[in-house]
Amino acid sequence: MTPPQVVVHQDQKLLAQAVADRLVTRIVEAQADRGSASVVLTGGGVGTAVLAELNALGARDAIDWGRLDVWWGDERFLPAGDEERNETGARGALLDHVPLDPARVHAMGASDGPDGDDPEAAAERYAAELRAAARPEDHGPAPRFDVVLLGIGPDAHVASLFPELPALREEERTVVAVHGSPKPPPVRISLTFPAIRAAEEVWVLASGESKAQAVRLALDPEAGPLQVPAAGARGRRATVFLLDRAAAAELPPGLERIASP
Ligand SMILES: O=C1O[C@H](COP(=O)(O)O)[C@@H](O)[C@H](O)[C@H]1O
Question: What number is the ipTM of this complex?
């Protein structure tokens, strides 16, 4: 595993635009190499802003949308269409505006879905969908996603992996139900570290001073993922922290970073 790279942009708008550009490039490259691409979306402020910027980009037409698999890193376990669901935000910002193949949009279960109000069953259903999508060359129970996008909370949570909760200790299952999330709503579904770490690239997105401490800890080689979940989110080929200046404010001066104007 290579050490994380850090890229700093001036503000949230420029950060979201730059990540959208980067995502187009990565998807197009993967489609050229393998014929299709896969991305894992995040909810949250910057994650949704990236999708809105991607929707506004002329370059979005370079993507073959019918050959893109869209997954989620986590979901709030609420009824379908609820404004608080990460899926709802992603659909409004981008997914409803591009010609995706609906069979390749892999939303996590809703609390009024086929499993009823049973998040464990919905998590197992998602794990089965990941297993079915994994190719022999992925050598595991989940696809080697091209890119996993992750927001980060002020408590350094990523996806719905919150400090000290049991989901962080999961070593086998790729998806789990999360109960007692300190950030509402309390019940969620989340990819686990084994699924996230199967990705080729993990991109951690952070904007604003409220994330500065979490970002510093996530990049501290001494930090452990049970207290600092973002410290455990790493890709096989690359891990990139894409930040705005406010989120990068507490990084030690020696840390290598690429700054943008
Ligand atoms: O609850 C969640 O929060 C995080 C971070 O959101 P932000 O608005 O502080 O950027 C997000 O990554 C996650 O997907 C979401 O469910």
Answer: 0.97
